[in-house]
Write a structure and sequence with these properties.
Elements (H helix, E strand, L loop, with lengths): L1 E7 L2 E8 L2 E5 L3 H6 L7 E7 L4 E2 L7 E6 L3 H7 L8 E6 L3 E2 L4 E4 L6 E3 L1 E7 L15 E8 L2 E2 H6 L4 H5 L4 E8 L8 E6 L2 E7 L7 H9 L9 E3 L7 E3 L4 E6 L3 E9 L3
Parallel strand pairs: 6-17, 8-14, 9-20
Antiparallel strand pairs: 1-2, 1-5, 1-14, 2-3, 3-4, 6-7, 10-13, 10-18, 11-12, 11-17, 12-14, 15-16, 15-19, 19-20
């Protein structure tokens, strides 16, 4: 089931996406992710996705991101496989939705794309084992871990390079029934394929990541884990269109615009 947040006539709504049709439901996103019988919530009206403004599926309090988590990406960079996940955090203010603009900051000369599968937490998770992790995952989404690569190289840590407003496109929906262990993931820049791999190539799978991260920081309902990017990372430019696709979820599309401040 694909859950989607959208705005119609300046009203925030939650719906179930089937093809291009959205059926509005009387529920919060958290409640919908936890529901065992979503059909009872449907029936408040239908909309075509092209007639609404799609938003961030659920505003996270934080996005915990994982670096170097694909074996083929490590091979591409000629780097050793890490013994533990490498993590960092993006702020909630970086989040934007499907078809929103990524703003290219004036302080950077190289802004890169990073296609990633996103885990969406449905209830508070603290010291959760990998065996029980699925009980805390409400579904999966797509995240583009946009990065000011020149600033990342310049700084000792990654906060500035990863945290600009608009540097975390998320969406277009949350898929509650995805098998995260074997899904194709790809990225196209101006319709040209730049990244392509499969989640089976992850070094640490989604359940291991929930265990590792929840042992460090409490994950709140609505928080997300961005699970790392496959090989082929590269730069974007103002005027570009970037599309991240995860099999079983859909396509997250965003546009690059200059900073006019």
């Amino acid at each position: 089931m694909k859950l989607i947040s959208f705005k119609k006539e300046n009203l925030d709504k939650i719906g179930v996406l089937k093809g291009k049709e959205i059926t509005e439901i009387n529920s919060s996103m958290i409640e919908a992710m936890r529901s065992t019988n979503i059909d009872k919530l449907e029936g408040l009206g239908t909309f075509n996705i092209k007639d609404v403004n799609v938003g961030v599926p659920i505003p996270p309090s934080k996005i915990v991101c994982v670096g170097l988590n694909y074996t083929d990406h490590a091979k591409e960079l000629d780097m050793e496989i890490p013994e533990e996940p490498i993590i960092f955090i993006k702020p909630s203010t970086a989040a934007i939705g499907h078809c929103d603009d990524i703003i290219y900051p004036n302080s950077s000369v190289q802004v890169d794309y990073e296609a990633e599968l996103g885990i969406v937490i449905s209830k508070e998770a603290h010291h959760v084992s990998s065996i029980d992790a699925s009980d805390y995952i409400g579904g999966y989404t797509i995240i583009n871990d946009v990065t000011a690569r020149d600033l990342q190289r310049k700084d000792v840590q990654w906060t500035r390079a990863k945290s600009f407003d608009t540097f975390a496109p998320i969406g277009p929906c949350i898929e509650t029934e995805l098998d995260p262990m074997d899904q194709n993931i790809s990225l196209r820049l101006n319709s040209k394929l730049k990244q392509h791999s499969n989640t089976k190539n992850m070094i640490f799978d989604v359940y291991e990541l929930v265990e590792f991260i929840s042992d460090i920081v409490t994950l709140k309902a609505g928080d997300m884990i961005s699970t790392g990017t496959p090989p082929g990372v590269g730069p974007m430019n103002v005027g570009d269109t970037v599309e991240v696709e995860v099999e079983g979820i859909g396509v997250l599309r965003n546009f690059l615009k200059g900073d006019n401040k």
